């Protein structure tokens, strides 16, 4: 089966799982898995851009990840900062618009500044939008939207009967990002783990046992081909 370049998804979202287990299986500390995982993320971002897929979201730090050992959290922050520092020129060259998706303000100040700087400098790039889900949780995203909407109702700017799906979406962290067409999760776990919830309603799901540090171009193409073989009906009947 060959990849059909005319039938690519508009938005691919990825849960990059299995870094810790990959490292453990090699007798290495967990953080080595994250280090290799960040390199893999770079390759997959490049491949997505090369293929002409317009939106990619990588789940890089969840709300639940704060419960990890402090050292591991610090390494993840360091890898993110390093990524943003090194890749900014590449993003400009390749026309990649960067977006942090989540409650970013709770991150260390230096990282927040870097995220905002890269968002600002790349905001007019047109080839691809790279969303990094950072301090993100799907339930928290929905609750935040509900609170923002409640404020609008309270102040009389919005009436309850006008809260449509489109209006609701405007209050999520992803108001201007189309919902994912394909979700990939590595490492064999079969769950969504509080990633995009509202946004994944009609997304095709693809699970692979491969650990994220071993996920490569070939595995990515396999996932895309699997997506192309699906019949998406959105609740309708296809003749
Ligand atoms: C899940 O593996 C992975 C994470 C929690 C972090 C993902 C972050 C990166 C790949 C690095 C930063 C990314 C960029 C774009 C620079 P896990 O540790 O939960 O693995 P396990 O389930 O085997 O323990």
Task: Give a written overview of the molecule.
The structure is a single chain. With 239 residues, the protein is an alpha/beta fold. The chain has one domain (11-137, 179-227): 3-Layer(aba) Sandwich (Undecaprenyl pyrophosphate synthetase), CATH 3.40.1180.10. It is built from 7 helices and 6 strands. It has a 6-stranded parallel β-sheet, sandwiched between helices. Helix 2 packs parallel to helix 3 (70-94) and helix 3 runs parallel beside helix 4 (109-122). The longest helix is centred in the middle third of the chain and has 25 residues, at 70-94. The radius of gyration is 18 Å and the shape is globular. The protein starts with 10 loop residues before the first strand and ends in an 11-residue tail after the last helix. The mean pLDDT is 97. Bound molecules: farnesyl diphosphate (FPP). Residues 16-21, 34, 37-38, 41, 58, 60, 65, 76, 79-80, 83, 132, 187 line the site of farnesyl diphosphate (FPP).
List ligands, each type once: farnesyl diphosphate
**Low-confidence parts:** none
Task: Supply Rg.
Answer: 18 Å
- Measured by DSSP, the beta-strand proportion falls in 15-25%
The counted number of beta strands is 6
- Measured as a percent range, the helix fraction is 40-55%
Backbone shape: globular
How many structural domains are formed by the residues?
Answer: 1
CATH fold-level name = Undecaprenyl pyrophosphate synthetase
**CATH class type:** Alpha Beta
CATH architecture: 3-Layer(aba) Sandwich
CATH superfamily: Decaprenyl diphosphate synthase-like
Number of helices: 7
Main β-sheet, spatial strand arrangement: 3-4-2-1-5-6
Order of helices and strands: EHHEHEHEHHEEH
Amino- and carboxy-terminal Cα gap: 24 Å
- The helix-and-strand class reads alpha/beta
State mean pLDDT (0 to 100 scale).
97
């Amino acid at each position: 089966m060959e990849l059909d370049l005319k039938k690519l998804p508009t938005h691919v979202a990825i849960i990059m799982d299995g870094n810790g287990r990959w490292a453990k299986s090699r007798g290495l500390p967990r953080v080595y898995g994250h280090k290799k995982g960040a390199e893999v993320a770079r390759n997959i971002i490049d491949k997505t851009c090369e293929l002409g897929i317009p939106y990619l979201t990588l789940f890089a730090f969840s709300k639940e990840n704060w419960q990890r050992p402090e050292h591991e959290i610090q390494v993840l922050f360091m890898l993110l900062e390093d990524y943003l520092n090194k890749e900014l020129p590449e993003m400009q060259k390749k026309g990649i618009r960067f977006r942090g998706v989540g409650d970013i303000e709770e991150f260390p100040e230096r990282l927040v500044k870097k995220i905002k700087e890269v968002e600002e400098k790349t905001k007019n790039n047109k080839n691809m939008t790279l969303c990094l889900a950072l301090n993100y949780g799907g339930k928290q995203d929905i609750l935040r939207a509900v609170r923002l909407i409640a404020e609008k109702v309270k102040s009389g700017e919005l009436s309850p009967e006008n809260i449509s799906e489109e209006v609701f979406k405007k209050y999520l962290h992803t108001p201007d990002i189309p919902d994912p067409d394909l979700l990939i999760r590595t490492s064999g776990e079969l769950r969504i783990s509080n990633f995009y919830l509202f946004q994944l309603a009609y997304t095709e799901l693809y699970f692979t046992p491969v650990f994220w540090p071993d996920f490569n171009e070939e595995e990515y193409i396999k996932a895309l081909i699997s997506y192309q073989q699906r019949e998406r009906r959105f609740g309708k009947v296809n003749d």
